[in-house]
Amino acid sequence: MNSPTSPSVQRVVQSDICIVGNGAIAKTAALGFAQAGQSVTLLCPPSPSASATPASPPVQASWDVRVYALNHTAHNLLSSLKVWGALDAARVAPVDAMLVNGDGGQPGGLAFDAYGAHTGTLAWIVEDRNLNQALDAALRFASNVTTVSGRAIGLLRTADDVTVRLEDGSAIRAELVVGADGADSWVRGQCDIGMDYRSYGQHAIVANFHCEKPHHGAAQQWFTGAEGVVALLPLPGDLVSLVWSAPEPLADALRAQGAQQLAERLAVFAQEKLGKLTPVQPEMVRGFPLRLMRPHAMVAQRVALVGDAAHVVHPLAGHGMNLGFADVEQLVRTVNEREPHRGLGDERVLARYGRARKEDVLLMQLATDGLDRLFGTDLEPLRVVRNFGLNLLDKLPGLKRRLISHALGK
């Protein structure tokens, strides 16, 4: 809240909704509310390389190591906002099958495919850069979205509105603030929302490779016990994208060794199905810390949280970004369907949003955390049970269809 010694406000930007954040979820929320007819101020942290600039550079020939497996919820939302058609389609790879391989050298596993799911594709692999450039292009045509670059230093909430005070003395006043500012959300911190936190002691190691054999649009995943979870996702042509959720000591070693040595280590998993792997960019091996974050609420007075600001899950199911898109879709719909006498930041309206998202988010948190615990050990009895469970599930078409339907976001 503002204190008596706060500097005088130099300029006030007035809009229906203020969205704090600079990533894909924040930009999607801005477009969603703008399409619904609200005026939006998108507050981005100051950065010389921020992607929300008036002009975006063309997509480069190199391949982004940060990719997302977007499900049908994300696809439908981005399509409705005219963003999907703005993606560079040549750099988007459909996922036609998902193969979860038995660990410990044991045969068997679990297979999903688009045909069995009665759909055209299971998911789409999209680069972070491609997605953000398409969102930036759409934002340039959104006349009721104002982008402001600045550092927020205060949040003042009243019964009638909410004001975000900026470091330069200016302010943004709105009926509703949406916190889309990531796992370390400033907005969430200003609302004193409690949180359960646990580090997985792992890093997601990401890199891109050429594969010798065709991947046929199949995503491959291996649960390796003590070495974590290895996933190879299809990219266009002969390319695959690695996401290796590795324990921190192993992750440090993988980064230090470089992409060529990483490719050689992957041969034990991928050689049979994908052949020899060759690094696309030998210097491009990145790592991201993995953690579980459960904020105690997704809403507060005149504030709603979306994306990583509202929940952070293990990436082994590839649904962290999809949860964020589902948040945006639900929040925009809930606000748009409110009674005429209720305002955009009405307490009951926001409570409906929180209730609507609670079950989906909790199920994903429990599923990803439970799988990490189950597959994170090398005990032989557990290996046998795990492989038996995968093989059994593969032979239960009804249960498989329910799992696929949930994963697709249908």
Write a concise synopsis of the structure shown.
The chain has 410 residues and is an alpha/beta fold. It has 10 helices and 21 strands.
- CATH-assigned homologous superfamily of the largest domain: FAD/NAD(P)-binding domain
**Annotated CATH architecture of the largest domain:** 3-Layer(bba) Sandwich
Strand content: 25-35%
Estimated helix fraction: 25-40%
Main β-sheet: number of strands, strand sense, barrel status?
Answer: 8 strands, mixed
- Nearest-angstrom radius of gyration? 22 Å
Number of helices: 10
Level-1 CATH class name of the largest domain: Alpha Beta
| Overall SS class | alpha/beta
How many domains in all?
2
What name does the CATH topology of the largest domain carry?
FAD/NAD(P)-binding domain
Uncertain spans: 1-7, 49-59, 379-396
What separation lies between the terminal Cα atoms? Answer: 41 Å
Show the helix and strand layout:
Layout: E1 12-14, E2 17-20, H1 24-35, E3 40-44, E4 67-70, H2 72-80, E5 93-95, E6 97-101, E7 109-113, E8 123-127, H3 128-140, E9 145-149, E10 152-157, E11 162-166, E12 171-174, E13 176-179, H4 186-190, E14 195-211, E15 218-223, E16 229-234, E17 239-247, H5 248-257, H6 259-274, E18 277-279, E19 286-295, E20 299-300, E21 303-305, H7 320-336, H8 347-375, H9 380-394, H10 397-408
Parallel strand pairs: 1-12, 2-3, 2-13, 3-9, 6-15, 13-21
Antiparallel strand pairs: 4-8, 5-8, 6-7, 10-11, 11-12, 14-17, 14-18, 14-19, 15-16, 16-17, 20-21
